[in-house]
Amino acid sequence: MIAMAVISILVSAAVPLYNKALIRSKETILRQNLFTLRTVIDEFTYDKGKAPQTLEDLVTAGYLRKIPIDPMTGNERSWQIIMEDASNTVNQAEPGIFDVRSGSDKTSLEGTPYSEW
Description:
The chain is mainly alpha-helical.
């Protein structure tokens, strides 16, 4: 009985720490994916003289093997795409993707929404 009580106390302390570690690892992956996507968008825009219209354009042009998964939503189609302002584009006839953000509506451990990263 005492052993069960000790085990339950240890488990109740370990589970929140484990959950926080999982969230931190997802946040790290999100930061890496956002950095990669933003870098590749800039490279595509510089090389082609116009911004990509979709994330799939980055794959078909060979800049990415596949669209990375948003770790907060678990889906590669949930990325929020921010399009260029037509007056500030490289190719004003075809404004494309300027930035990418997470499609999650959750808040990070530091208190900022993932959709603002």
